[in-house]
Design a protein that fits this description.
By secondary structure, the chain is of the alpha+beta class. It contains two helices and 14 strands. The protein has one domain: outer membrane lipoprotein receptor (LolB), chain A (Clam), CATH 2.50.20. It comes from Winogradskyella eximia.
Amino acid sequence: MRYLLSSFCLLFLACGSYPKKQNFQVEQDATSIFHNPYFSNATKDYVYKANIEVYDNTFSGIFIVKKLGNSNHRIVFTTEMGNKIFDFSFVEGTFKVNFIIDAMDKAILINILKKDFKVLVEEELSVIKSYSLENTLVHEITIDCKTYFYFKTQQLDKIVRVGHGKEKVTFLFSEISDTIANQIKILHSNIKLNINLKSIN
C-alpha cells in the first residue's frame, strides 16, 4: 500500500511539473471550454496530401476528413490512385475501423492513430487549467485520461501530449487561414511515427 501511494504521488508530481518546467503562469480568469476550430465545418471536405512514416515504412497519399454531424467525423487515407489505406469513423465518442490495410493492421498502431486523430477532430473540450506564456495562452485538457496542452496565440498553433512531465506527442499547425490549418505535423517522441499533412483544397 505504501508503494502504491508513493507511485501515485510520483505520477501526480511528474504530470504537474510540465507547466513549471515551461515557466507557465496560471491564468485565473480563463475559459472553461475550448473550441477547436479545425475540421469543424460540416459543409467542407478537408483534403490533404499526406505522408505517414511508421517504423520502417512510409505511406503517401490523400488524407480526407469529413464532418458528418455533431461528434461525427470520417477520416480516410488513400493512395493517389484511390486505393484505401485506412478508413476510420468517430461517432458520438465511439471509434470504428471501417478498413485498414494489412501492413498497418496492428492493434497498438490503430490505438495510437485513434488517439492522434481524435485530438484533431475533438471540438468542445473542457479546460482543467489555463496558463500564459509570453503572448500565448495555454489550456490544459484531458482526452481519454491523457493530458494535453493546447497553445494558442492568434490561433491554435500547437498541441502537446505530456506523460510523466515529458512531451510525448507534438501537433503543429501552420499556414493557418481562418479555421483551416494548411500544414499539420504530428510528431511522436517515443516511437517512430510522424504524420505530415499539407492541404490541397
